[in-house]
Structure formats: C-alpha cells, structure tokens
Specification:
Elements (H helix, E strand, L loop, with lengths): L6 H17 L11 H34 L1
C-alpha cells in the first residue's frame, strides 16, 4: 500500500500524460484528420481524464483512510 500511495509514482504517470499531450498537440487532431483519428484522440482524452480522476480519488480519499488506520 505504501508503494501505491507514493507521490513519486504519480510523477511518472504525470510525465507520461504530459508526453502524450505534447506529442499530440494536446490531443488536438489536425484539420485533415479522419473520423477514426478524431475518435482516437477523443477516446484518449476521456481515458486521461478518467485516469486523473482516479488518481485524485486514490490520493485524496482512499490512501489517507489507510494512513489514519
């Protein structure tokens, strides 16, 4: 549990998310992008948003409960 709650592990995830966003112009498809490309970027945006929400839930709600107990 200690390893999961380690803020340093979030830094690695944050760096990967930032790298994905930098490679994709912040998940903005080019004007000439086809529907599949746009769907990929849209789905990736949703995945990253869900991941951020999950990480916040772990860090702000779940892990503090285990630290208190």
């Amino acid at each position: 549990m200690t390893e999961l709650a380690d803020p340093a592990s979030d830094l690695g995830t944050d760096a990967l998310i930032a790298h994905i966003r930098s490679l994709t112009a912040n998940l903005t498809p080019p004007d000439h992008a086809c529907g599949s490309w746009r769907a990929l970027y849209s789905g990736t945006e949703k995945l990253l948003d869900d991941l951020a929400a999950h990480m916040a839930l772990e860090n702000d709600v779940l892990f503090p409960r285990f630290e208190e107990g």
